[in-house]
UniProtKB/TrEMBL annotation:
PANTHER family per UniProt: AB HYDROLASE SUPERFAMILY PROTEIN C4A8.06C (PTHR48081), ALPHA_BETA HYDROLASE FOLD-3 DOMAIN-CONTAINING PROTEIN-RELATED (PTHR48081:SF8)
Protein name as catalogued: Acetyl esterase/lipase
Keyword list, A-Z: Hydrolase
Disordered: annotated segments: 1-22
InterPro entries on file: AB_hydrolase_3 (IPR013094), AB_hydrolase_fold (IPR029058), GDXG_lipolytic_enzyme (IPR050300)
Coiled-coil annotated residue ranges, if any: none
Domain Alpha/beta hydrolase fold-3, first and last residues per copy: 45-234
Keyword Hydrolase: yes
Protein species of origin: Roseateles asaccharophilus
Length: 269
């Protein structure tokens, strides 16, 4: 559902990176295209592409990465392992290794000691980003300033009204196939890191901005997750936009990054 990139967002080719234990995972670095504030605050973001757990690549991540960079984030887009060859928890474990590597010396990427760490993802990548937030809370590290989720895949039951309205949810739909490949076994459907929407403990997580698109099949589960975070005392804002594109999303993302980063760094918001 991506649209043609806004010409104003066209930027130089991203820098290749290797993250995590040797030989490391392939990633690309997209430096921020605008400051978050006038105090040198930076938002370093791990971005995980969509693709239903079974597809997607760094090339597919570039349009979203450039949008996030235009909103003020220093973005690391990760080429995480895909199902079915790498079922749960392989992609999550790889993403956590990458996140930990980023957290060791974030100023190496941003050039600023005032750097806050974020996770972000779309669709299947949104699922992994939510699980990273849970893992970071449970392991007391790394400290996350926020999570940005774009139409996240959170409910393998696929029974929501927005899923039915989109004529999705049957056994042959892309989401059903993706969940089957990712979970591998039915037992994994009960694991909170695989299906964060069903986690019994959702308190103490990083603030969230959850973006949906008008008419998107995943809208209902995204809104349900935001509501559940708020019920558990978390900071969570959900917005349904005409499209997750520059003209609609830049300002909300920029404001979220700025405020969450400053809050995490104990600066006035």
């Amino acid at each position: 559902m991506h649209k043609t990139a806004d010409p104003s967002l066209v930027r130089p080719s991203p820098k290749p990176l290797r993250l995590g234990p040797a030989p490391g995972l392939a990633a690309e670095f997209h430096p921020a295209a605008r400051p978050l504030d006038d105090g040198g605050t930076r938002a370093l973001m791990l971005y995980l592409h969509g693709g239903g757990f079974t597809g997607g690549s760094l090339a597919d991540a570039r349009e979203r990465s450039e949008l996030l960079a235009a909103a003020g984030a220093d973005v690391v887009a990760l080429d995480y392992p895909l199902a079915p060859a790498h079922a749960f928890p392989a992609s999550l474990a790889a993403a956590f290794d990458a996140l930990q590597a980023m957290a060791t010396k974030p100023a190496r990427l941003t050039g600023s000691p005032h750097t806050a760490l974020f996770v972000a993802g779309e669709e299947a990548g949104g699922n992994i980003a939510t699980a990273l937030s849970l893992m970071a809370r449970d392991q007391h590290a790394p400290a996350l300033a926020g999570q940005l989720l774009i139409s996240p895949m959170l409910d393998p039951q696929l029974g929501s009204a927005s899923m039915r309205d989109g004529e999705c949810g049957g056994s042959e739909c892309v989401y059903a196939k993706g969940w089957q490949a990712y979970l591998g076994t039915c037992a994994n459907a009960d694991h909170p890191y695989a299906v964060p929407l069903n986690a019994s403990r959702l308190s103490g997580l990083a603030p969230a901005l959850i973006l949906g698109e008008v008419g998107h099949p995943l809208n209902d589960e995204a809104r349900r997750y935001a509501a559940t975070l708020r019920e558990h005392g978390g900071l969570a804002r959900d917005l349904t936009l005409p499209a997750v594109a520059a003209e609609h999303a830049l300002n909300p993302i920029h404001e979220f990054l700025r405020d969450a980063a400053r809050r995490a760094l104990n600066l006035p918001v």
